[in-house]
Amino acid sequence: MSQAKLPHVQTDSSDDDDGPTTKLVFQRSKSVDKLLGGQKVSDVLLWRNRNLSAGILAGATLVWFLFDVVEYNIVTLLCHIALLGMLLLFIWSKAAPLFDRPPPQIPEVIVSEQAFREVAQTIHYKLAHFVSILYDVACGKDLKKFLMVIGSLWILAILGDTCSFTTLLYVGFLCALTLPALYERYETEVDHLVAKGHEDLKKFYKKVDSNVLNKIPRGPVKTKVL
Prior knowledge:
Largest sheet: 2 strands, antiparallel
Mean pLDDT: 75
Number of strands: 2
Helix content: 55-70%
Distance between the termini: 44 Å
Structural class: mainly alpha
Order of helices and strands: EEHHHHHHHH
Strand content: under 5%
């Protein structure tokens, strides 16, 4: 699908010290596939593989229904899945010689030491990167990001008090499966609305920064020694 031309937003000379500027809303140096985590992930999130996307959505809906609506216990569910799996393997292993079929084999990727090591390294890298970003934000190096994180955590706290954790995860999963596809389809319209909102937010932040935040005394922040 060809990318639509992104709208430009003009800012007044009074908003910026360097005079009027022209900006793109979502100025990307990477493709959409890389931004979403790779070709396979983007195919699912953008519904290019409709069968796989629909299957994942149906599976997530079933899990949410079992845990949140039926209030199925996770221990009971895992035990039932294990019982069903062992029963199927038992029947398969006993019936395989009768039909000249090979017995069931455990896929090597499940017990592969290299696969576990790669997963552990990926989780460690992501966690270390997240903690580093959180540390920089908590130290107040970027006051704008600090306020955004505080506001986001406050909103999440309110949402967590009004709905269950399973429902919150399911809503986030639905957003991940629908918003990227909707944005790809209505990219020009969304960029135009976000551009206007971004400029209004910048003006509001500058007023708050000049009238309130700049008057708050700040202590020195120690830099990390690599």
